[in-house]
Amino acid sequence: MQHLTTKSVLKEHCGVFGIYAPGEDVGRLTYMGLFALQHRGQESAGMAVTDGENIALEKDRGLVAEVFTLERLQRLRGDLAIGHVLYGQTNSASMAENAQPLAVTSRRGSIALAYNGQIINAPALRAELSNLGYLFRTDSDIEVIASLIAQADAADLDSALMETLAKIKGAYALVVLTPDRIIGIRDPNGIRPLSLGRYRDGYVFASETCAFDTIEAEFVRPVNPGELVSVGHAGCRSSQFAEADKKICAFEYIYFARPDSLIEGVGVHGARRRAGHILAEEHPAEADMVISVPDSGASAALGYAEAADIPLDAGLIKNRYLGRTFIRPGWQDREFAVRLKLSPLREVLAGKNVVMVDDSIVRGTTCGRLVRLLKKNGVQKVHVRVASPPVISPCYYGIDTPCCTELIAAELDPKDICARIGADSLGFLSIAGLRQAIGLSADSYCLACFSGHYPAGRP
Ligand code: SF4
User: Fold this and answer.
1) Which of the listed residues 215, 246, 277 is the one where a domain comes to its end?
2) Are residues 203 and 284 in the same domain?
3) What is the pLDDT of residue 106?
4) What's residue 325's pLDDT?
């Protein structure tokens, strides 16, 4: 079965969560945290909990609410837990094995690990470990990380982690569970997000702060690029294992993260709304109304409407009951797949000139279908405005993007894209506009899918 979102061609790989909460039901809290992170991965979910001695692990294919039955949650008792939601290859027979966390036992004891990102030198490391006789059970990078830790010469876990972190390259937000603490780690560029929060007498880590809000935890700060933060019975300790060179994924703000999250301390809804303001200045249009492509275009459409002083209306209604299984294999490229997801409001649209704001254009197929759908329903002119720059390069840092030949902006300039999708005009947010909308210092972003410049290298 295939899961399609409105922007089904871009998929976040994972969300991670970790909590140290003495005397609390950490299984229930982790369930709630993962539920808030469900948009980051719908293929499998998992949780590892320790009572101070043993690590209990439950994971399976499916959504958080499907995987964690009451029976399973009752087995997940302790003071410390980590959890994970995964996007993976659909129809992969190995999906259940690739689910995280991964638990491993070495001479330094038992640990469980979960991560979001992509290790760009994982194939080389996997080959080296295989030559040493290591038998891999999954095709996940987390097993490469776990086996590097297990094989390290170091006497203690912290030194083994240091040895491992010196070897892996790429993007990672990693949580490691031991019997007495949780360690949250972010790669030296901090490409994938990870935040630290406070929960009563304990601490919590999450890919996005919306998970903190769900359990009424308080956001403390982002884990810094190149930082390792350890929380547990001994309190909270931090160390910098590598020099920080911050390059946060700009696409988190554009599309992946929930609008109610803070990424790097910046509110996602606000960043999208400002992107809409700037987009209206960069690409004005004469129109009767602004509509969004739900849901991720909503904040930018609001910003565009405010700055352009054009009324915002609901032109496209999203089916609320989109599940993982609403579409059958092979259907995703069909015109009616779009109609299953989005319905035009004819009474609002007929006879109007419309600005349709979308968060991004990747292949251009969905956008073209929406333009046709609007015109079939009586829209006179469709001006497409995109709240991100053209996507010209694939992502190697944990986002599943199509290859270059499928990226419409890698092949065509905006004028030709406009003709291809059948719009009356088309405008993309500039890279400078995107930086300004998010508001971090100008060199703090990974913009590789818009520029082709990869801050942490390519595989
Ligand atoms: S290449 Fe694009 S999607 Fe990937 S991390 Fe960089 S900005 Fe994010």
Assistant:
1) 246
2) no
3) 87
4) 54
In a domain, 3, yes or no: no
Which of these is catalytic: 14, 249, 395, 446? 14
Identify whether residues 276 and 213 lie together within a single domain.
no
The finding on whether 250 has its CB within 6 A of some atom of ligand 1 is: yes
Q: Which CATH number characterizes residue 311's domain?
A: 3.40.50.2020
Write down the pLDDT at residue 406.
87
Residue 455 inside a domain? The answer is no
Inter-residue contact 113 to 100 (CB < 8 Å): yes
Asked if 442 and 232 touch (Cβ cutoff 8 Å), the reply is: no
- Angstrom distance (rounded) from CA 366 to CA 73: 39
Q: What separation, in Å, do the N-terminal and C-terminal C-alpha atoms of the chain show?
A: 29
Domain of residue 47, CATH code: 3.60.20.10
Q: Could you identify the residue written with the tokens 């780690």?
A: 185
What are the DSSP calls for 234-261, one per residue? TEEEEEE-S-----EETHIIIIIS-TT-
Domain membership flag for residue 322: yes
**Catalytic status, residue 14:** yes
Average pLDDT over residues 328-333: 59
Query: Is beta strand 227-232 parallel, antiparallel or unpaired with respect to 235-240?
Result: antiparallel
**Residue 91's pLDDT is what?**
46
Q: What is the pLDDT of residues 144-180, one digit of tens each?
A: 999 999 999 998 999 999 999 999 999 999 999 999 9
Ligand 1 lined by 173 (C-beta under 6 Å): no
Answer whether 397 contacts ligand 1 (Cβ < 6 A).
Answer: yes
**Strands across the sheet with 353-358, in order?**
289-292, 353-358, 381-386, 425-428
Residue 15's domain comprises: 11-246
In a domain, 420, yes or no: yes
